[in-house]
Structures are given as structure tokens and as C-alpha cells.
Specification:
190 residues, alpha/beta, Rossmann fold, 2 domains, 9 helices, 46% helix, globular
């Protein structure tokens, strides 16, 4: 199978890294505000003022090299590759700054995480998945999962503690990489 894999919130625990910084830094501004977990934009999700957005970009850039890997992601990549699956990184990283692409590539090499293809700066992951012939897309972003599933592609939505689940017959929630590998094995046996 061809498997598409997002980075932030799926391979890297960068979502928690950034969210922790924002909630601590802007606590007084967001305590009374409503958080929008349907938004993939950090700025919109936390209602970050325009004047402060450069600070958030610096923390995001820092997260590229400092955020921890999701537990057992390396082992899962190795297992999936050993079973003959093709893995494609499909990420929005690089849309804000091309520097994020080179930082990410260096980090993936350092961590020994290898894929068969890399698609950075993606704005329409559903089209990219169709073009690549992706069978399963693994992503945590509500809007991405909704779009990819609507296009008829099976999605594993990587769920964190406050994530909203997309309701679609093509979407299955997943909580860790062991579960992802087990569910892929089940699909193979069918």
C-alpha cells in the first residue's frame, strides 16, 4: 500500500510543543476566548494577535528541531517498510518558510526516518494523495482529514487530547503508531 504521512502531530509531537508555549504565553488572552480546534491555523485556533505572530513563527521553527518524536514512530516506519509499504511524507511544512524544509530534512536524516517520497508546502493534500495514488493518509488536521476522506481516500486521523473527530465512513481515529500498524495489517488481511 501507499501510505501518506503528515509530520506535525503525527511524526513529531510539535503540536503539543507549540500549544504549551502558546497557552502559557497567552493565557490571559485566551482564558476567556473560545478555542477553535477545527482551524488548522495556529493563529486562528488561539486567536493570536497579528503583532505577536512572529514570536509564534520562531517557536514553530524551534519545534522543527526540538519537538520530540511520537512514541515508536521510527519502529513503525521500519515495520511498514519491511512489509513492503511505500511511505510518503505529505506536509504543509515549507509554506511559511522554505527554511523549514531544509531543517525538517536534516531532522529526518538525523532521526533515521526514511520515506519513499517527500511533498512539502502542500496546500491541497487531497489532490496530492490522488496524484500519488495514496491508499491511506495519516493526518491529525481536522480540515485535511475531512478533505482527503471526502475525496474517497481512507484516513487515519491521529487524535490528541482535544482533537475533533471527522465523521466520515473513510475516517478511523488512531491514537498511536502501534495501533496504526495493527490497523494496516487488518486492512491487508481483508
Amino acid at each position: 500500500m501507499r501510505i501518506g504521512i503528515d509530520l506535525d502531530g503525527v511524526v513529531f509531537n510539535s503540536e503539543n510543543y507549540i500549544a504549551s508555549f502558546i497557552e502559557l504565553t497567552y493565557m490571559d488572552k485566551i482564558v476567556d476566548g473560545e478555542l477553535n480546534f477545527k482551524s488548522s491555523s495556529t493563529k486562528k485556533r488561539y486567536n493570536i494577535p497579528d503583532a505577536d505572530f512572529d514570536t509564534i513563527l520562531k517557536v514553530y521553527e524551534e519545534s522543527v528541531s526540538k519537538s520530540p518524536l511520537m512514541p515508536f514512530v521510527k519502529e513503525a516506519f521500519g515495520y511498514l517498510k519491511s512489509q513492503g509499504h511505500e511511505l510518503y511524507i505529505i506536509t504543509a511544512r515549507g509554506r511559511i518558510s522554505k527554511k523549514h524544509i531544509s531543517l525538517t530534512k536534516r531532522r529526518l536524516i538525523k532521526e533515521r526516518i526514511k520515506a519513499d517520497g517527500y511533498c512539502f508546502s502542500q496546500t491541497d493534500k487531497a489532490s496530492t494523495c490522488k496524484m500519488l495514488g495514496i491508499d491511506i493518509m495519516i493526518d491529525d488536521d481536522y480540515n485535511v482529514v475531512k478533505s482527503v476522506a471526502k475525496s474517497g481516500i481512507k484516513c487515519f486521523q491521529f487524535i490528541s487530547d482535544r482533537m475533533l473527530l471527522v465523521k466520515n465512513k473513510n475516517v478511523e481515529p488512531v491514537y498511536n503508531w502501534g495501533e496504526i500498524c495493527r490497523k494496516i495489517k487488518i486492512i491487508e488481511k481483508r
